[in-house]
Design brief:
Protein name: ApaG domain-containing protein
Mean pLDDT: 82
Strand content: 35-45%
Pfam family, one: DUF525
Strand order of the largest sheet: 1-4
GO biological process, one term: error-free translesion synthesis
Organism: Rotaria magnacalcarata
Length: 69
């Protein structure tokens, strides 16, 4: 429940919510996609589709470690 431990409430004053995350990849690139399930004020739910987006690795300073995005 929630997004990164938060439960944002969207409104006219706050029409958007943004957060950052990371993932470890064992390849140099990848992609992610998914959905967020949102609850409206009337208690009904809507699923918001997140289209596929590319992941590109940054180089780590220590050789031999997995890259992170």
């Amino acid at each position: 429940k929630g997004v990164v431990g938060q439960e944002p409430k969207l409104s006219k004053e706050y029409p958007a919510f943004q957060y950052s995350s990371h993932v470890s990849l064992s390849a140099t690139s990848g992609h992610m996609w998914g959905t967020f399930k949102m609850e409206k004020e009337d208690g009904t739910f809507v699923e918001v589709r997140i289209p596929a987006f590319n992941l590109e690795c940054k180089s780590d300073s220590n050789a031999g470690e997995k890259s992170s995005v």
